[in-house]
Specification:
Elements lengths: L2 E3 L4 E6 L2 H18 L13 E4 L5 E4 L7 E7 L2 E9 L19 H7 L7 E9 L10 H16 L2 E6 L2 H9 L3 E7 L10 E6 L4 H11 L24
Helix pairs in contact: 3-5
Length: about 240
């Protein structure tokens, strides 16, 4: 099933056409670049760049756009949230995090280089439109519930990088394994450390169950441990 609906009339579905994916990349630009003021490394291996869609609107693009599985959250017909799953079936043959030196940390190599029975995907690049960050259940929780349910159905292993305390807490409470908490992308002295969480295919059923139970809680209940006052906690991005 490529659709998931909540009792609050939010729907999550896989984005399968170019126009929908461009809308998702427009939302990423709005949140990451315009709102957060993120300045990406133009020489980075991910290949970040800003392009224009067929409506001449700016969109955030990178080397993994075409090989990723994109997921969109909708309120009626309005795209209000996005995330995606990066696969290794791209021209580089790697996940995004594998392009960076920190992927050679012993903790990372144990996960990335193990002989796995199931394909590994990297869930990343999430964002929620400003007007929909206080919904109950939260949009990011609905997106992650859908993505992890998809991974469970396809028997995939999942790795998730995040810099945001709300998601660090959510992943921990859902039973994901914290692999590394000091992963960096080499963006300089102001870079926030990235937490890397992992879940094997065999443990996904438990994680999905806990995410379903958590989906009814407000996001504020997760904004407690570290960085409560940090500006990064304002943004629901992965």
């Amino acid at each position: 099933d490529n659709n998931f609906s909540s009792k609050m009339d939010f729907c999550v579905r896989i984005l399968s056409d170019l126009d929908s994916i461009n809308l998702a990349k427009r939302l990423l630009y709005e949140v990451y670049i315009r709102e957060m003021g993120w300045e990406f490394r133009e020489d980075g291996p991910t290949g970040f760049r800003v392009e224009r869609d067929n409506q001449n609107q700016p969109i955030l693009c990178d080397a993994f756009d075409e090989s990723s599985i994109w997921f969109g959250a909708y309120k009626e017909e309005e795209l209000i949230g996005v995330t995606r799953a990066v696969q290794r079936n791209n021209s580089l043959g790697k996940l995004d995090i594998e392009l960076y030196p920190a992927s050679q940390l012993p903790s990372m190599k144990r996960v990335l280089q193990q002989k796995e029975d199931h394909q590994l995907i990297e869930v990343q690049r999430g964002a929620v439109a400003k007007d929909y960050r206080d919904t109950k259940p939260s949009i990011i929780q609905l997106l992650l519930l859908f993505v992890f349910s998809y991974a469970l159905d396809k028997e995939l292993n999942v790795i998730c990088p995040t810099v945001f305390p709300m998601l660090e807490t959510l992943f921990s409470r859902a039973g994901m394994k914290l692999v590394e908490k000091n992963f960096t992308y080499g963006e300089g002295c102001d870079e926030w450390p990235t937490f890397i969480f992992y879940c094997s295919s065999s443990d996904l059923a438990q994680v999905v169950g806990k995410l379903k139970r958590a989906a009814g809680k407000r996001k504020a209940s997760f904004l407690q441990e570290r960085g409560l006052q940090s500006k990064r906690s304002k943004f629901l991005v992965v």
